[in-house]
Specification:
The protein is α+β, with helices and mostly antiparallel strands. It has 4 helices and 3 strands, in the order αααββαβ. β1 and β2 form a beta hairpin. The N terminus is likely disordered.
């Protein structure tokens, strides 16, 4: 009888943690789908979100010129992300050049 109780608690915890992961993934998906609206059409074509690590949004581009252009809008983009997607808890942005 006691073993069944533990298994039920384990199932509850698993569902709880799975739902947390799904919520963050869902918010990340929404951010990706709205990236053009957030970054602007020109930047969104050249600078792509690829991951979130340690509460930093990771972006990749193929040319250093795009990094410079991105830096001009970085604070506004970060503010927008924090406002629209607080669940992601993004505290900064890191951008680098894609390796070929």
């Amino acid at each position: 009888m006691l073993e069944d109780d533990f298994s039920k608690a384990g199932d509850i915890l698993k569902r709880f943690f799975d739902s947390l992961a799904d919520n963050n993934y869902s918010e990340y998906s929404v951010l990706i789908n709205n990236w053009e609206k957030i970054a602007g059409k020109d930047l969104a074509m050249a600078v792509k979100p690829v991951d979130i690590k340690d509460n930093f949004l990771i972006l990749k581009t193929d040319h250093p010129g795009w990094i410079q252009k991105f830096k001009f809008k970085e604070k506004a983009i970060l503010r927008e992300i924090k406002k629209k997607y607080p669940e992601l808890e993004i505290k900064g942005i890191r951008i680098s050049i894609k390796s070929k």
